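User: My collaborator sent over this chain with a note saying "see what the structure looks like." That's all I know about it. Can you take a look?
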Amino acid sequence: MSSARNGCKNRDHEAAVLFGAKIRVLHYRENHFMNDTPAASEQVRIGLLVIGRNRPGFDPLWGREVQAAAGQALRRLPWPCFEPSAPAVDDASLRQAVAELRQAGCEGLVVIQPTMGDGRLAPGLIQLWAAPLVLWATTERQDTNRVSACTLVGTHAFASLLRQWHHPYEVVSGHPDDPATLPMLNLALRLTLTNSRLHRAKVGLVGTHAPGFLNMHVDPAMIRQQLGASVHHVGIQEFIDAVRAVDDEAILDDRRAIDAMGLRCQDDIPSAALDMTSRYTLAIRRMVRQQHLEALAVRCWPELPNVLGVWPYFAFARLADEGLALAMEGDADGALTLLLGRLMGYGAGYLSDSLEYDAHSLTLWHQGEAPLRLCDRSTVALGRHFNNDKPVVVNAQLAAERNMTLARLWHCDGYYRMTAVNIRTAAPRRELKGTRGLAIFDQQDVSDWFDHLCHEGMPHHLALFENHNAAELRRLARQLGITWIKS
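Assistant: Without extra context I'll predict from the sequence alone. Here is the result:
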């Protein structure tokens, strides 16, 4: 182990303390990316559209009480909420309400019928509002033998019509004051907002897929048609030129940020290699800002280490910790998978290979670019690539005993598919250079799972996210109109 003049330290205690401080700082830096992208909830405003009635019926007092409670409930969610000045009871008032929602800058929309409204408004609504909807059925009054609202019937009528017209939506049912209702609304809004934002997202692709990885080739037209996102292509030489053009003074500032991380080195890492890491980091940050990218896939070999002499993986790890959905080896669908996780609020994700497996566990491994927040801090060290001895990779063990999710979005046979499985992590059974960990499957035979997904054409990169999210991702696939592959 060495510690040359690059600021890397071998003192584990100091490194751990500084690393912990860096994590706290990264929340601000994550917002640097996030504020330009869908995951920044403070930038998103939701609307509450009330479908009212022109003719008398049901219990209007109960309807007004539920409407007021619904507005109060939505204001307890993370997004600012706007309610038009009057309910929509006919075409004119519907148009006025939608105009007010647009003027207020609403991106998500919750639709309620405190008492059953006019079903003829549904076609007009989806003509005026192209984005996904959350249909919220409130509840009947329980202290009477009369039907007070018929809200579930009205909501069901809207939902079945929207399905037949292929307009995306989520359904929530429950009283605004029921503690179980708010989490359902939160999830429904996250799903619909993710769908909306994906349709405005832009993924960058530097070069193409790495040599031989034909399974990661993407069709920009298919991505646009089926997911709504667009692809911005950057040539390898164009990217290399951008890396070389980074200002030397900016490199000095970024090197101080690297030194402040206090990461130890397992191998001799020349100062010039860390300078190149800073160049990679700063060039990608600039590209993301200038091109308004929400995700990025980079052909990281063979050109980058051969031409520039340094692997970009430490830079990738840093950028992932800052909130960028970033994939190696030109895996654009992998970058989109990471983006979906971030838009859903899962935080920084990581793409991994499946190195080996037995009946109940899968060894996760890649060359060393996992976001540091997913790693066991005591194992994090900078090193050289196991294959060609060039710097700079992050050798680290994924944090053990955590609930996590393995997920993947990919295309095969002309359409997009998605899968996910809940796992828990454990320490790997043997030491490996790069990023390594063990995924424990409590519910499935890994052999059957792996065989099934191979026959569905799933590429070899799996995205790893914190917490168990498979059920939510299954609903997201439905929301996006993507075929769900049961794991």
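A starting point for your reply to your collaborator: The longest strand covers residues 415-426.
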